[in-house]
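note to self: dont lose this again. the chain is below, predicted strucutre after it. 196 aa total, dont forget to put it in the shared folder this time
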Amino acid sequence: MNFPTNNSDVSKSSAPPRLHRQTLVEVNISVHTGRRNAAHEQAAAVLHASTEQTRMDTKRELAQFGKELIDEALLCTRRSLVEVDAPPLRYLQILRDTIAAQESLIAHEIELTNGNGELAALLGDKLARQLAAFNAVETSNVNYIEELFTFGIPLLDRDTKERLAAFSEDDRRRYQIAVEEFKRCYARRKNEILAS
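---
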């Protein structure tokens, strides 16, 4: 679509026209940041709750929800960044992939425990040893996820502080509302999983 321009008003050295996406990012960066932080915080709480579970189906559902929360954090970070490969984005991607691995380990352990499928039948006598191996890898992965959080929390805190410093008073208000509302929503879902 061609828009008429008045060449006398625009010099050849002026900046290129702004993209609509840039404007939307600037308007909503406070909400995206609040949602990202709420999702990240609740993912840590969800994954901690999963380590205290003995029921494998609940453990798997919590791991799946933790992955979904990190997906939310990734989406909000992508929507609020112009830089494609920013450290918060890379950290969240690594965390998401590691949580996905945890979810997969739990699913395999459930399958083997229930004795379903050809793999359980093929393992026969070795099933107990294989389950112990899955459990050891799962424990190691949980420890790695906890280490990622200890690295990532300060990284996101620093990013948030930089953003908050640039926010207007209204942006800070919108940020706070987003954090509170999304934390409440995510905590409700976690509690539903734990109650099931």
